[in-house]
Write a structure and sequence with these properties.
Length: 186
């Protein structure tokens, strides 16, 4: 090799050895995903994939916000507005900074029964879950303005977040991190 040539560098090779604790956490996360894939919840195969799809692009939360605001009380209108604003902040943060900085691959669908899988699989990276972030942001934003509406929305937000693991598109830690980021955004 002469002075003007540069050696070939493998940019895909890890630059440092992963920390053993990190490796154990990833292994535990994979085991939890496998357990969720084997879990049989009667009726959920019809409901959770549809619920997960309905939350795409915030459509579900916009509909819920419209319903809350339609009650025409100032508190409900503020709750709906804050929920949507919180969702916008969480979604922008997770989908631009979060997913681009971590770049975790999605789980393999092999252990997930076909009836639970989404028809169209997401193409973005897995960590953190944008759906969980949006759900938590909306629910917490609503709850900060109206605890009663927040309590009404919370089970729906939890179900959307859980649906992402149940349908096989996220690891549990993706959902937990997304929910934490969403709650923080609110």
């Amino acid at each position: 090799m002469n002075e003007t040539e540069t050696p070939d560098v493998d940019l895909t090779a890890p630059t440092a050895l992963p920390h053993p604790l990190y490796e154990r956490l990833l292994a535990a996360d994979a085991r939890l995903f496998e357990r969720a894939a084997r879990w049989n919840w009667p009726g959920a195969e019809r409901v959770l994939p549809r619920l997960s799809r309905s939350a795409n692009h915030g459509v579900l939360w916009a509909a819920v916000a419209a319903g809350v605001a339609a009650t025409r009380t100032p508190r409900a209108r503020r709750a709906a507005l804050r929920g949507m604003a919180s969702l916008a902040v969480a979604s922008a943060t997770v989908n631009t900074l979060g997913k681009r900085s971590v770049r975790r691959a999605r789980p393999l669908l092999d252990p997930v029964p076909r009836g639970r899988r989404l028809r169209r699989q997401p193409v973005t990276t897995s960590f953190p879950s944008g759906h969980a972030a949006s759900a938590a942001a909306f629910a917490v934003g609503v709850a900060l303005e109206s605890p009663a509406w927040g309590a009404a929305v919370a089970p729906l937000a939890f179900s959307v977040a859980a649906s992402r693991v149940y349908t096989g598109v996220h690891f549990p830690s993706d959902v937990l991190a997304g929910a934490a980021l969403g709650a923080g955004a609110a």
